[in-house]
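Page 42, continued from yesterday. The earlier attempt failed because a stray header line got pasted into the input along with the sequence. Redoing it now with the clean sequence only.
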Amino acid sequence: MAQHNELGEWGEQFAAEYLIKKGYEILERNYFYDRAEVDIIAKTNAGDSMVCVEVKTRNSDFFGDPQSFVSQGKIKLLVKAMDAYLMEHDISLETRFDVIAIIKNKSTEELTHFEDAFYHF
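This time it went through. Structure tokens are written below.
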């Protein structure tokens, strides 16, 4: 497996563990719909809303912060996939879209959680 794939899988696991520690319930990982993939679908600790989480893991911020790699096209695909998930499971809760940005290398292991992330872009 390519090293960048291993880093991405590690980042998604790290993000899922972080969310669980924060009280989120992980409902789905790597949900695919059409051409879109949602890394993590979770329910908030209060259980009153859904969270669609895009995880971006990089080994440095040399080319930019990890969260800056979420394009407008990716946002459209996430919205489409999350809408399909909600309809498929007959869920009518409020939904927000978060980004978890991770930088992981030999000297750093840094996670930043952007709630309602699309407002940040």
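Notes: The first helix runs from residue 3 to 21.
Reminder to self: strip header lines before submitting.
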